[in-house]
Amino acid sequence: MTDVFDGGPTGVFNGRQPAAAQRILTVLEAVAHSGPGVTAKELVSMTDVPTPTMYRMLSMLVSDGYLVRVHDLTGFALGSRVTEIVAANENNTRVAALRHIANAARLQVDAAVVGALFVYGRLVLIDPDPVHTVSNITELPRQLHANALGKLLLAFRRELIATVSFERLTRHTHVVPTTLVPELDSIVLSGIALERGESHSDRSAVARAWHGPSGLVEGGISIIWRGDQGPQSNSRFTEYAALLEELCIRSTSPTDLDSHRTYASRPENQR
Description:
two-stranded antiparallel ribbon; disordered N terminus; Arc Repressor Mutant, subunit A; GAF-like_dom_sf
């Protein structure tokens, strides 16, 4: 059998074919190595999968969340199901290190602290705050242009700008790439990203880039709170940015992984 699908009108995957799983993995690897925006035609050339089969395969992978279409619908990128698998199974040390920093920050601020890994060009939230909830937190990976963690990712992976829809969420949201680029340039220099009411009108945030064992930026840690978009709020942004800077530099290994549980169990943090 040379085809991955059973040839029916719905393009259903026939798992009994030994080559089927291998072809699926080959396509996913090709997308991962090519980066966001790779087209079906390019994938056919890279994998030698027949064009009709490739289109049916891509449709299935998008439907199941393993791939997503970039916003102009011309190409593809890895979806959330792939990045969640990678984050869960290959980044345990990185997850523990970010949680260590987040737990330390939670002991010093009355605000939400959230950690995220950058996995194959996607923002993967790995440590939501156990006490301070963030409304619509699951939207952060989709709204990279409008939140501090997303801006960190875009700053260090500029090719991802092409995958962002630049949807207007508030009157402060960047809706065209050219207005965001100068801010991204500044983020690369400082390692610090800010949000001032861009994803929600009453939300502020500071995020600091986190360098993993490779020495490259592999994630970020963010403090998120309500309010403070005016000029008078600069002191709070400065204070939180300095705290994250200190914790990221000082933290070398997750030596106190129980601090997360200790923090959440304190009487003053039970809300």
